[in-house]
């Protein structure tokens, strides 16, 4: 699943009329870059949630065939549901197998592989060290527990 519903407040005025997932970097939108990388990793079906300017995403991506994947959209027309709500709304489209959730507005060189988790795990996170220009990250760990955001070292 690619999360592409966000408003992109920090990228304004660029995102006043463009969803942040369609912002171009090096000649390709962030969303298209993710779709190509997922396809190259063997992912064949992708759910994309849409919100702000979502019709532009639906028009640009269409069926996903040009990226080597089949795309289904999970629109959030009236109000954005945030990360958890967007995933919850899309669950009927995602099936019963483990799946990746990727923020469509990031640039990363991580190469996805088939999701695999221990039987007792609810989720896995792929994290990177918090960049120096940010005061804090979103996640921190002590042993195997997530700790509060105040001590977060990872994004």
Total discrete domains: 2
CATH class of the largest domain: Alpha Beta
CATH topology of the largest domain: the name is Spore Coat Polysaccharide Biosynthesis Protein SpsA, Chain A
| Percent in helix | 10-25%
Morphology: globular
Q: What is the H-and-E element order? A: EEEHEHEHEEE
Q: Low-confidence parts, pLDDT < 50 over ≥5 residues?
A: none
The CATH superfamily of the largest domain turns out to be Spore Coat Polysaccharide Biosynthesis Protein SpsA, Chain A
Strand residues, percent: 15-25%
Multimeric organization: single chain
Number of separate helices: 3
Largest sheet: 4 strands, parallel
Mean pLDDT: 81
Strand order of the largest sheet: 5-4-1-6
What is the level-2 CATH architecture name of the largest domain?
A: Alpha-Beta Complex
Q: Kindly state the number of beta strands.
A: 8
CA gyration radius, whole angstroms: 16 Å
In angstroms, what separates the terminal alpha carbons?
18 Å
SSE class: alpha/beta
């Amino acid at each position: 699943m690619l999360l592409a519903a966000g408003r992109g407040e920090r990228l304004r005025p660029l995102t006043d009329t463009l969803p942040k997932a369609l912002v171009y970097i090096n000649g390709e939108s962030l969303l298209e870059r993710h779709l190509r990388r997922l396809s190259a990793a063997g992912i064949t079906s992708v759910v994309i949630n849409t919100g702000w300017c979502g019709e532009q995403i639906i028009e640009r991506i269409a069926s996903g065939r040009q990226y080597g994947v089949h795309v289904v959209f999970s629109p959030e027309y009236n109000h954005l549901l945030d990360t958890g709500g967007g995933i919850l709304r899309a669950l009927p489209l995602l099936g019963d197998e483990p799946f990746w959730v990727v923020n469509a507005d990031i640039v990363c060189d991580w190469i996805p592989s088939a999701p695999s988790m221990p039987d007792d795990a609810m989720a896995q996170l792929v994290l990177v060290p918090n960049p120096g220009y940010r005061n804090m990250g979103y996640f921190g760990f002590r042993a195997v527990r997530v700790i509060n955001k105040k001590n977060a070292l990872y994004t």
